[in-house]
Every structure is written in C-alpha cells, then in structure tokens.
Amino acid sequence: MTDSSLIPAPVPWQVRAELEQAKQALRQAEAELGAEQAAVNAFRMHCRLKLDDLVDELQELTTRKQSLLTRLALLRQARDEGAFDDDDAFWQTAVPPEPDIPDDEELLLPTDTPRDKAAEKRLYRELARRFHPDLAETAVEEAYRTSIMTAVNAAYEKQDIQALYDLAGELDPGELAELQEIDSLEIRRVREQIMKVRRLRRKALQRLKTLRQENTARLWRKAQELEEEGGNWWDSVRRELVIVIERRRQTVAALAAQVESLEAEMVETAQRKDA
Q: Can you give the residue ranges of every domain in the chain?
C-alpha cells in the first residue's frame, strides 16, 4: 500500500497559469529590449557616417576650451599668490584638460561606448537598499543578504555593470522567505520558476531603462519624433552642431586672448620685480 504522504501534492492550475503569464511577460520584455537595442545600434552607425566630422571638431574645441579654462585658473591662482615664475618649466607646458569643469552648452551627442556613471550609482544604491544585511529578520535571510551584498560591492568596485545588472535580477529577500514557507516540494519548485522568470524580466526591463537614458537612444527617439512630424533630423542636427561649433570657436578664441593677456601681464610684473 502506498503511503499517501509520499505522493507529491498536485500543483494548482492557478500557479501553473501564473508561471505561463510570467513567461509571456518575459518574452515581451526581451523582445522590446532586443528591438530597441537593434534600432539604437543602427542609428549609432548612421550617426558615425553623417555626423562624425562635426562631432570630432566639436570635441577638439571642447578639449581646447577645457585646457584654456584650466590654464587660466592656474595663472590667476599664481598671480594672486605671487607664485608665477617665467623660468619655471611648468608654466611653459600645456596644461592637460580638466574634465570636471562644466561646459556652458549642453548638446546631446551620440556615444560610441555607452557608460552612464550616474545610472550605475543609482543601480548600486537600489541594490544596497534591497540587500543590505542590516535589514535581515532571520539568520538565513542575513546570510543571503550578505552574500548578495558582497557580490554587489565587488562588482561596483570593479565597475562591472553587467554583473550589477545580473545581481539586480536575484531573488528579493522577501521572495526567499516566501519559498521557505511552502511545504509542497512541487509547488515550491514551480514558485521558484516563477520567481526566476520574473527576475529575468526585471533584468530585461532594467537594461531597457538604462538604454533609454543613453545619449544615442535619446537622440534616436528625438529623430523619430521629428521625422514623424515631416522634418529631416539629420539636417536639423547638423545645423545645430554648426551653430554650437561656431559659438565654441568664439569661446576658445576669447579664452586664448585672456590667457595670453594674463601671461603677458605676469611676465611684465616678474620682470619689474627682477629689475
């Protein structure tokens, strides 16, 4: 006679239906991510073909501008402190550009290698809120949170954004506790599948969100909107770039004149002191 306690409990149809719904939602999220990623990549290639000459020129002017701003700041500091020495080789060499100096013209440009440090920080903070060990209510949960948070910290330190995305799809501590409360092994397995599928969907949605914040994707959407209205995005953005480049040239010329004037003034002051 078979012990009825050994017969696996049947999985309710509602649970199996929930699994199918989760799988369908995952397929939709992955399809949306794939289609948008392909469209943005194609748009990125068109940008390189149509805009690279202007983008390169603008970037060169931006580098020159930042270099002049840095040199001007150093010269003013030296003048105020009386530290300028015309014979010091330091003042005869080009000062490297300082990337932290804010630009006065914000222009959306396509990027070759998407990297959004602000988005990475937001993702890290989100993971820290979800998995911090101090929020654990049981020893099992604390061990789980600690293992995930250790991996999060290691990935963030290495700037491994792919690993952070993967960790964003891990089980929430509350989900882990929910699984532990299920007595039926079969139902627990199906529930675990549901949670796994939902993790994968969250991961796809997180990637889609990050993609949409990237410059090239934002430009792609802007181009779509303009073309839907009957406009020519490529002509529009080239005209905008030309205008910004001309403003940047004027800014660089004015900064170069300021640097030249200040250098001459400080050389004259140093020569009077030596006389």
A: 117-211
